[in-house]
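Sharing a chain and its predicted structure for anyone who wants a worked example. Both blocks are below, sequence first, tokens second.
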Amino acid sequence: MSKIRLRIGRDAMLRKRLLEPGEWYVFRIKKMFQETAKDKESTNTIVDLLAVSTEDGETRDADVPVRRYFSEKAEEYMESFVTALGGTVDPDTGFEGEFDEETVQEKLVLGLVNHRDAGGGNMRNEVEDFRPMPDAA
């Protein structure tokens, strides 16, 4: 009888770890990119974030990854993220601009974490609001 080898690595365990809901965390932007949405009619901006600490410096949840999707069909939800990156969103005209991938990568931002049901009762971290780091404001 043959044996079946299974492995669950540290990265997998970190992906499923739930951060404290309602808490502001410091996140490092690991990657930001765009891809065509499933409907083939719009574009999603995808941001891979990595928790560094809570806003008050607690590092118990360091290295927990969170992926945030922004759809161009709901662009109003990008406002706080654009502001956290240093963009200025005019209340009357909005924002139109570009961010250089290399400049954005490794940038620190504050993110407000909550949970969402990913189906089947599986809860996932979701960053629902952003702020610039205090020293970047």
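Comments welcome. DSSP finds three helices and five strands in the chain.
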